[in-house]
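Dear support,

We are seeing what looks like truncated structure output for some complexes. This example has two components. We would appreciate it if you could run it in full and send us the complete token output so we can diff it against ours.
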Amino acid sequence: MKIYVKYFASVRDIMGKGSEDLKVEASLSANELWESLTVDKKTPVRILIAVNHEYVNKNFKLKDGDEIAFFPPVTGG
Amino acid sequence: MKIEIMNEKFDPWQSLVDYKKNVLQNNPKIGATSVFVGTVRDFNDDEEVQNMELEHYPGMTEKYLEDIVNTAIKKYKIIDGLIIHRVGLLEPTDPIVLVASWSEHRDNAFNATRDIMEALKAEAPFWKKESTDNGFRWVEPTVGEESSIDEV
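Here is the complete output from our reference environment:
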């Protein structure tokens, strides 16, 4: 299945890019994807995940066409 | 309701005048207006801040801000609510955020503005990067302001 991945703020710096389109196995979880993308990277302990503009937990199962975003805790206001 | 994310500097007081004139139009049911304005300081964690870059997640940020105001409208029965938030490059003294609530009585306006601001800080996808004498740094959430959203 095809998914669209976005990175923001310090996570974008770590990944060296803001987004990428990936072909992945069906029903991959958000956490499995994160682990596979960051095998060789030093990552912050606290990461938030959103799928299709909604926060999800790390066990969320991805579907074809999902947009998933990884980012650090938010600091607006 | 108004939700706006602005790339350019804005004047929160003028924004309130414009919204009152063009949208609220002297609604005689309004008995209370509560306003919060956040501005850029020139220090953070004992370091001088020269300027700050704010980024957001287009689409998701607007959705969350709208949900946050809708929640306050339902919970406190406010007549209307507004959020204007800056992104891009900001200098000390620049306004970052304007939150306003209008209601019949003061309690609901005060509580709604406070709730909107706290929810924005906990949930709305914005990130600050400060420029100091020692270079750039991503701002960490203040302890106690951290959200309860599930993490990896």
